[in-house]
Amino acid sequence: MSNDLTLLEKFQIFRQKYFPERQLFLRSEGRVRFVTFSSNFQMATSSAVLVALGWGLVTSYHYLTRDQVLEAKNRTITTMSAQYESLSNDFSALEMEVERKAEQLETRQRLLEEMVGVDGNSAPRPVNAEPEAATSDKAPAPNTSMTIGEKPSFLAEILGAGTAQAAILSNTDRRKNLLARLEQMQHRQQYLAHALLSDAEAQIAKIDQVLEPTKLDNEQLLQKAETMVTAMGGPFVPEQDFQPVFDENDHDTFLQLINTRQRLEMVTMVLNSVPVGQPAEKYYLSSKFGRRKDPLKKTWASHYGLDLAGWPGTAINATGPGTVVHAGWFGPYGNMVEIDHGNGFRTRYGHMRKVRVKKGDEVTLGQRVGDMGKTGRVTGTHLHYEIWFDGEVRDPMPFMKAANDVLEIQGRNEETSQQ
To answer: Does any domain span residue 27?
Structure first.
């Protein structure tokens, strides 16, 4: 039956049982008075007493245990202070280590940016700097393709990323995080350096292949460049050396890259002096280079050039930029122009009917220097064309056959096509 009672009815039974209405009788001077205490008043008074008693117990407990809490807090603060000091000392040492590695990586980064043309003035040369395994790595890493003017301090980026996580990472984790980021940058630089090195070596090999028919090679051009470059000077400013960062040999690639690029630059500089243009607008080959029967004496003799026959007055053009060192009559050559192209290369244009330049003139590739004729020791109208290198005469035919490849290496193929 009791299960059918409502909550209100149960409360009413509880109140009547434990807090029934009570009366306090007071008798004084023959008079009787009474004070009635209702159930609600009794319940409110009991609740207030219980709250006050609970509050007193809690405050008493905290007061009694306050010294123990303070002592525990002091121990915690002391421990944290010691840990912080250890962390600070460890991070100072780590910061010096990171700074040293970052400075070396920044030096390498500047070198790589200069080599790929990231200088703000020229478009970067496309280089496959990373293998497929590296491109699939989504881990955060410093940007290696920023321009010099845009990229922030690499050291600031690395240290900033580390200190932002100092609150949640342990010393060991922070060290691993910072050095891992630096090592990741070093690997990316290695990939790019290897790509640039392979590219430079391929260009040198291509130059050797192109020059093979001319019986010239890179070593000859390098030796000539070293003997010709004499007008140099300026204050001595030592360049920062490349030191190992993570591995004792991880700087070898960069040293090899510098040497190979310098070799390529010197070879290309000399190659720019190679005469590879067409000496005449229209012609046919009437006599080759080498041993032949002399056209006048009819005996065997050496012929140190090519005879290119054509119509009288056909334009004779400079086969490369240079300085005119002779313009006029030159014995059996008749009217001849000789041009010094630099780095040991010279060309001669003989038997011309008219000379259109004078000694000391600076000429460009394809510039008209005279007209085809038959002056000097000849049997008919033609151009006698010679190429000299380092004081020795060379067969012009291999140079003319290699013209397109050499012009492409020189970057002047468009220049000749417009002439």
So the answer is: no
Separation of alpha carbons 344 and 325, rounded Å:
13
* Length of the chain as a residue count: 419
The terminus-to-terminus CA distance of the chain in angstroms comes to 119
The amino acid at residue 160 is G
Residue 344 domain-assigned (yes or no): yes
- Choosing from 271, 292, 322, the residue where a domain stops is 271
Same domain membership, residue 256 and residue 119: yes
Return the residue matching tokens 């292949």.
209
> What pairs with residue 203 in β-bridges?
none
Q: How many structural domains is the chain composed of?
A: 2
| Residues 117, 187 within the same domain | yes
Question: Distance (Å, rounded) from C-alpha 173 to C-alpha 80?
Answer: 18
Which pLDDT tens digit goes with each residue over 48-98?
899 999 898 888 887 777 777 788 888 888 888 777 777 666 666 666 777
Q: Which helix (H) or strand (E) holds 189?
A: helix 171-211
| Same structural domain, 265 and 290 | no
Q: Where are the alpha helices (DSSP H) in 243-298?
A: 252-271
- pTM, rounded to two decimals: 0.56
Among the three residues 271, 294, 326, which one is the final residue of a domain in this structure? 271
Q: Which two tokens stand for residue 163?
A: 């200190």
Work out the angle between the directed axes of helices 39-115 and 154-163 (0-180°, nearest 10): 160
Tens digits of residue pLDDT in 256-286: 888 888 888 888 887 788 898 899 988 899 8
Distance from C-alpha of 132 to C-alpha of 70, rounded to nearest angstrom: 59
* Domain, as residue range, for 387: 284-417
Outline where 19-38 has alpha helix (H).
none
The DSSP output letter for 344 is T
**Do 326 and 187 share a domain, yes or no?**
no
Task: Decide if 2 is inside a domain.
Answer: no
Do 260 and 132 lie in one domain? The reply is: yes
Query: Is 71 inside any structural domain?
Result: no
CA distance 141 to 184: 7
- Looking up tokens 């009474």 gives 34
Q: Are 209 and 273 in contact (CB under 8 A)?
A: no
Nearest residue to 315 via CA among 285, 347, 378, 357:
357
Return averaged pLDDT per consecutive 10 residues of the chain, 419 residues in all.
Answer: 72 81 78 80 86 88 79 83 72 69 74 64 44 40 39 46 46 66 78 85 84 79 68 50 65 82 82 87 85 70 85 94 95 95 93 95 94 92 93 90 75 55
Same domain assignment for residues 160 and 212: yes
